[in-house]
Design a protein that fits this description.
The complex is a heterotrimer of chains A (391), B (417) and C (243). Chain A is α+β, with helices and mostly antiparallel strands and 391 residues long. In chain A, the strands form three sheets. A four-stranded antiparallel β-sheet of chain A has the order 1-2-3-8. The radius of gyration of chain A is 27 Å and the shape is globular. In chain B, 72% of the residues lie in helices and 0% in strands. Chain B is built from 16 helices and no strands. Chain C is an alpha/beta fold. Chain C has a six-stranded mixed β-sheet, sandwiched between helices. In chain C, strands 2-1-4-5 form a four-stranded antiparallel β-sheet, covered by helices on one side. In chain C, strand 9 and strand 10 form a beta hairpin. The radius of gyration of chain C is 18 Å and the shape is globular. Classes of the chains: A alpha+beta (391), B mainly alpha (417), C alpha/beta (243).
Chain lengths: 391, 417, 243
């Protein structure tokens, strides 16, 4: 969008009139809506304003990553919803990438069984509405899980039940030290690659940067355990009898079935699109490229790294980022199974309690818009930088 | 790679004598535990015994992975199925999943299922209770629409079907009229037929509409209406007039940046605030307007793709012949651009059909919503899986057919050029 | 001059179709050979077998003392000594011309970047596109791209150069610039095997001509004899159609 060209030519009547009409139309529509809104809100005894955000929310949320209860404000409730949305989106993105890449590569396999299986996966999970897939996992598959007293037991460390997946809680001491060591290893790896590149360019020596980086990221954080006084203990979930027939798990962290079904459905659905993008990307690199690279003596690994992947990634990344965005927007389907994401918490419960439809929905839509536009802008600048130059 | 023992042509006999028995062992164990309920590896801990066939099989395949052994069958197998460890493990996994889970699945779906009866008690076997679907079928198809009036919905769809068919087979001269009729006149006929209130047809309020027919009604309307709006938006975005250009861009990006659920909430909750106090717009109409505007933004991008793909020469030639903006677009540009993006339009329609189940969040009970209602009926508790499997199958068939058709269309159109 | 390429009783099938039938060929150092023949005769398949872009099922192919087998290490060694120019150029579009040329010397021969760039500029100058070094393939004309592809192959300092219809995808005006570059290369003493229809080039540069039809080498002769006195009837028919 280049606002430098936003010049309205006032002399040319034919071009001026439609634009003026459009502006009037837009202003008219806005005025009409605002006028009615004011009257309607007046009738309900509410005045337009975002001040309600600091009022006490007085409702609970079943799952929250930060401290929250009914005495916190609506603004805080919004934050909880937002974090929950981001949580399920990030998990979904990671899972769908792994699954999608595997299936995408599988579709190109010479192995007939793998290629066909991948093809059917895509055809099945792409053509069933996401909402139904969520329902199926939530009302169907996950309802078949056992009650806590008969939980599926993973070595007494974690338990899978109908009420959720109970995993050990990580109890850290000196977590900040561990975290800093992790960041430090990332920085070190950056310099390792820089050094390797310099060595390669100046004297032609190839340093195994990958191997070194791997050892750094394992050894450095491990050192903090041995020398830095970092400890990690686990609080295991334990079966707890609440009454004659009702059991529960105490301790540990419980991953609610809503989150599990949402994450599973989102990943499996979006993975189909990612798989198709990956396939298009790899197929889009012509056979001749691989042959030319082979003919100058590059090894298979080098061909993949230096010739195929750079070209394939340019084809794969833009539509895949779009899919990540779709996944984030689709996470709003959480409302259908009561996973407390932004829509359910804010545009659902909070709206019902306060009746402030315009403010709440505008904030909700605004949040998603902000996410979308940010990713769009980043994607556009990435595209410009990476575009293969042509005449 | 640490080479402990690499199977190659030299140690052919050793490798084969280790590998083949391992594979056989894995196979026997798998066969036994799946079909014959005997577990020869029962002495191993639970998880190990379950996955033993996989482990034995992968190890065995590793040993027979000999490059160019000279035995033709083995070489073919190794090249296609057993080329890398990753490949072989994946293949074994797929076979494992297929054979372990397909028989029980088929049993549940078909062989043990109950098809006859009229109440939940008739579902005695352990399989799927399709009686549920049978009893509720009319509700799933028509929602709460009264049974004696359902012929009206059928008629409306039949007319649409005939029109679409006519649009394909009628000679080009009449195509334009059929399409215009479909876009502008048929919607009114269809609505009047289904809602009634005239010509002695009983009035049925939109809240009673539901089931698959509602899904199709909403999709059809949204598609028909979003098409012209999308076209104007696409043209607007490419306009040279700044006000029009930027308002189109703004409109498109806003609708594309938000999830459909928030749009539906907006239509149900926020929209009434914008209307004069006391006016009531039918909920279904609000929902259709919301979905239409939402999909129009996506349609606009699809059409814009077509407009961009047209060679500049077409624009130049039309202008040089003296055609103005509208004439050029109506006679030359749009006919070509639309033909280019028919696959894209089909994709958008497909996405639209997959999006319609969401309208249940605002209380309109299309297919998924009806199933949600049915499964909480006290006489039919616990039928959730059958219901959603049924819905999944119905949607899958519709969407798969549409996507296949659009793929064929795309192939046919791309070879035409 | 000693043998540098030898093919003995080479047979190759694509599934059921036999593309090469009992091919025997010897190429000496600094020899220039042009292979011609109708399409589908196996010309491209033949030279692609020499750098193992295609696999032969029967027979022996020996390049500079190394027998081509399934052993990948050997194949990569051979490919470093045999350069190839393709009909579709196949330059890497995401790298500049200079980077296209330095890629293999840096990663295969492990040369320092500066040295690789010097060699690259020398070769680019040889084919007269050194001024385009920093441009990208998409910004060059067809003839420039093919010359860049030639320079890229030369940067590995190969002993043998294979050409698979190098000018067939070019507009007529650009064919000459590529052929000129190839003539220069020939004069400098490179061993060349060229599959082409450009008979003018063949007459000027080739030591020996080979005519292939239906997977067999039908006739091999010194250039002068080939054009003035073709022995086989099929050769005569082919020559009458293209000359």
């Amino acid at each position: 969008m280049n606002l430098k060209n936003f010049k309205i030519d006032f002399k040319n009547k034919k071009r001026l009139i439609p634009q003026v009409l459009t502006i009037f139309f837009i202003i008219f529509v806005f005025a009409y809506f605002s006028y009615n809104a004011q009257i309607n809100m007046g009738n309900r005894g509410i005045s337009f304003g975002y001040g309600f955000l600091s009022q006490e929310a007085s409702f609970d949320i079943t799952f929250s990553m930060i401290d929250y209860d009914g005495s916190y404000s609506y603004g805080r409730a919004f934050l909880v919803g937002l974090l929950n949305t981001l949580l399920v989106s990030i998990i979904g993105i990671i899972l769908c990438t792994i699954l999608g890449v595997t299936i995408g590569i599988g579709r190109l396999s010479q192995n007939y069984l793998i290629a066909k299986a991948a093809e059917w996966y895509v055809e099945i999970f792409r053509n069933i509405p996401l909402l139904l897939q969520i329902f199926f996992w939530y009302y169907g598959a996950l309802r078949l899980l056992p009650l806590p007293e008969n939980a599926i037991n993973f070595n007494d460390m974690s338990f899978l039940t109908i009420k959720g997946w109970y995993v050990p809680k990580f109890l850290w001491t000196n977590f900040s030290l561990f975290f800093s060591s992790f960041i430090a290893s990332l920085v070190a790896i950056f310099y390792v690659f820089k050094y390797a590149k310099k060595q390669r360019e100046e004297i032609g020596k190839h340093v195994p940067a990958g191997l070194i980086s791997l050892s750094i990221i394992i050894i450095l954080p491990a050192l903090t355990f041995l020398l830095g006084g970092v400890t990690l203990q686990f609080q295991y979930p334990e079966l707890n009898q609440l009454s004659d027939t009702v059991y529960n798990f105490k301790g540990g962290v419980s991953i609610i079935p809503e989150l599990i079904s949402l994450a599973l459905a989102l990943s499996m659905y979006t993975a189909t699109f990612v798989a198709e993008n990956v396939r298009a990307g790899i197929e889009g690199v012509g056979k001749g490229q691989k042959e030319a690279a082979a003919s100058i003596g590059l090894t298979r690994g080098q061909i993949l790294k230096l010739v195929v992947m750079p070209q394939a990634l340019r084809i794969i990344i833009p539509p895949t980022t779009n899919q990540y965005l779709n996944l984030t927007k689709n996470s709003s389907l959480a409302a259908a199974i009561a996973y407390p994401d932004i829509v359910l918490v804010f545009a659902g419960t909070a709206l019902m309690q306060t009746g402030r439809a315009i403010e709440i929905i505008s904030i909700t839509m605004g949040t998603y818009l902000f996410l979308s536009l940010t990713i769009s802008v980043l994607m556009n600048s990435y595209n410009k930088k990476m575009a293969i130059k042509e005449k | 790679m640490i080479q402990i023992f690499k199977p190659n042509r030299g140690n052919l006999n050793t490798s084969l004598s280790i590998g083949l028995p391992l594979i056989a062992l894995g196979f026997v164990d798998f066969f036994g535990s799946t079909f014959l309920s005997t577990n020869i590896t029962g002495f191993l801990p639970n998880t190990l015994s379950y996955f033993f066939p996989l482990i034995a099989g992968s190890l065995g395949l590793y040993f027979i992975r000999i490059e160019y052994s000279g035995i033709r069958i083995l070489d073919n197998f190794n090249k296609n199925v057993n080329s890398t460890t990753f490949n072989s493990v994946l293949t074994l996994l797929i076979i494992f999943i297929l054979f372990k889970y397909t028989p029980p699945l088929l049993n549940w779906l078909v062989f043990d299922a109950d098809f006859t009866g009229s109440a939940k008690e008739d579902c005695t076997s352990g399989g799927a209770c399709w009686v549920f679907v049978k009893v509720w079928f009319k509700r799933f198809m028509y929602g709460m629409y009264p049974n004696p009036e359902q012929w009206r919905i059928n008629t409306a769809f039949f007319i649409l079907f005939v029109l679409v068919g006519a649009a394909f087979f009628v000679p080009a001269k009449y195509k334009k009229f059929i399409i215009l009729f479909m876009l502008f006149i048929y919607p009114i006929i269809g609505i009047k037929l289904i809602s009634g209130g005239i010509f002695g047809l009983k009035w049925i309020e939109t809240g009673a509409w539901g089931g698959l027919s509602l899904t199709l009604i909403v999709s059809a309307f949204a598609l028909i209406l979003c098409f012209p709006i999308g076209m104007f938006l696409a043209l607007g975005r490419r306009s040279e007039l700044p006000v029009i250009k930027y308002s189109s861009i703004g409109f498109i990006e806003i609708w594309r940046g938000v999830p459909l659920i928030t749009v539906l909430f907006m239509s149900a909750v926020m929209f009434p605030m914008f209307l004069p106090d006391g006016t009531y717009m039918d909920k279904l109409m609000r929902v259709i307007i919301a979905i239409t505007l939402f999909e129009a933004a996506y349609m606009a991008e699809v059409i814009r793709g077509g407009l961009q793909a047209l060679p500049r020469g077409q624009y130049d030639a039309s202008k040089s012949l003296g055609m103005g903006y509208w004439r050029m677009h109506l006679l030359v540009i749009l006919p070509q651009a639309l033909k280019l993006v028919i696959p894209g339009i089909a994709n958008t329609f497909l996405a639209l059909v997959k999006d319609t189940p969401l309208i249940f969040v605002v209380g309109l009970l299309e297919l998924a919503g009806m199933i949600g209602l049915a499964k909480t009926n006290p006489k039919w508790l616990g039928m959730a899986i059958e219901g959603y499997v049924f819905a999944g199958l119905v949607f899958w068939v519709i969407c798969y057919a549409m996507s296949r058709y659009s793929q064929r269309l795309e192939k046919r159109l791309s070879t035409e050029r | 001059m000693s043998k540098i390429i030898e093919l003995r009783n080479v047979n190759k099938w694509f599934d059921k179709f036999q593309a090469l039938k009992d091919v025997n060929l010897e190429v000496n150092q600094q020899e220039k050979i042009v292979i011609c023949g109708p399409s589908g005769s196996g010309k491209s398949t033949l030279i692609r077998c020499i750098n193992r872009l295609e696999e032969h099922q029967e027979g022996h192919i020996v390049v500079d003392g190394n027998e081509i087998s399934e052993n990948t290490k050997d194949i990569e060694k051979i490919r470093a000594e045999v350069g190839m120019v393709f009909q579709q150029f196949n330059l890497f579009p995401h790298l500049s011309i200079l980077d296209n040329c330095t890629l293999a010397p840096i990663w295969v021969k492990k040369l320092p970047k500066k040295q690789a760039e010097e060699i690259a500029m020398q070769n680019l100058k040889r084919v007269q596109i050194d001024d385009q070094a920093l441009k990208f393939p998409g910004q060059l004309s067809g003839g420039q791209q093919q010359r860049a592809a030639l320079a890229r192959a030369l940067c590995m300092e190969p002993k043998i150069m294979l050409f698979d219809e190098p000018t067939s995808a070019l507009d007529p005006e650009m064919i000459k610039e590529v052929l000129d570059a190839m003539v220069d290369l020939a004069k400098a003493g490179m061993t060349m095997i060229v599959v082409t229809h450009e008979m003018g080039f063949a007459k000027e540069v080739a030591d020996n001509m080979i005519f292939m039809d239906e997977g067999r080498i039908v006739e091999k002769a010194k250039t002068k004899d080939f054009f003035n006195n073709p022995k086989s009837d099929r050769t005569k028919l082919f020559l009458s159609q293209i000359l």
